[in-house]
Amino acid sequence: MRIDIGGGVRLFVDVEGPGLVPDGALMREKPTLICMHGGPGFDHAAFKPGFSCLADIAQIVYYDHRGHGRSDERPSSEWTLDTWADDVVRLSDALGLVKPIVLGQSFGGFVAQRYIARHPGHAAKVILSSTSHHMGMERKLAAFERRGGAKARELAEAFWSTPNPATWAAYWAGCRKLYNSTEPADPNAAARTRVREEILLHFVAGEKQRLQLLPGLARAQCPVLVLAGEEDPVCPPEDAREIFAALPPEWAQFKSFPGVGHGAWRDDPKAAYATLREFILS
């Protein structure tokens, strides 16, 4: 369904599980987990069906960022981290959600970090998964070279420094397989994803180049769990450790997964989902 979040902007939203469940003579309220997908330019499909295993402990809200996937198309002037971060609040207000748990994967983690900076008191908890706080070009290139050799470094450098349809196509064809350490459990998962390449290229050529998210993390006012795959080339674990160090120590938690790439639940679902369950229930 599409939800109007104000100003005529409609986001595609899918909700899994009830928020209220019978518990003896009472109705017990489960926490709501808002899942923010990666990209930019992709959609929420990568969370399904894996995140269904958390539906017994949380109501799960999946949505496509403004302009993405099945959400309404929007002008490029609205393709900014500030807008996407503010949309978390707009969507919560439209759905009547108070103190959600907000999870940002990869690019969704950029959005979640800006959301912490702009709305530090809004969430009950935040999860920053396989994400970065800056471009970190040299670190990224070194990681791709370790995993795929000189050719992978060349493709990554061409795309991240000069994003256009040709460098993106070559990079995705040659480097996508290096993001994870295992074969996809679902070979059709990528085919289900709707991609808006123009948003991807716009962001990587613009805001991504000057990304500096660490300063805003000091404003966090709720528990924040940082997840990192030790073999992630596109959001290297060193970035995650710097994110963790920038958070107020009383709120920060960190978990790394050895032998794991981008999105820990893809390579080690048992450990990753157990970590998420523990954090949601804590």
User: Beta-strand percentage?
Assistant: 15-25%
Query: Helix and strand string, N-terminal first?
Result: EEEEEEHEHEHHHHHEHEHH
| CATH class categorisation | Alpha Beta
Question: What is the 3D shape?
Answer: globular
Determine Rg (CA atoms, Å): 18 Å
CATH architecture: 3-Layer(aba) Sandwich
CATH topology group: Rossmann fold
Percent of residues in helices comes to 25-40%
Number of domains: 1
Give the overall pLDDT as a whole number.
Answer: 97
Low-confidence stretches: none
Please name the fourth-level CATH homologous superfamily.
Alpha/Beta hydrolase fold, catalytic domain
Strands of the biggest beta sheet: in what spatial order?
1-2-6-5-7-8-9-10
Number of strands: 10
Give the biggest beta sheet: 8 strands, mixed
Q: Give the structural class.
A: alpha/beta
Count of helical segments?
10
Span between termini: 31 Å
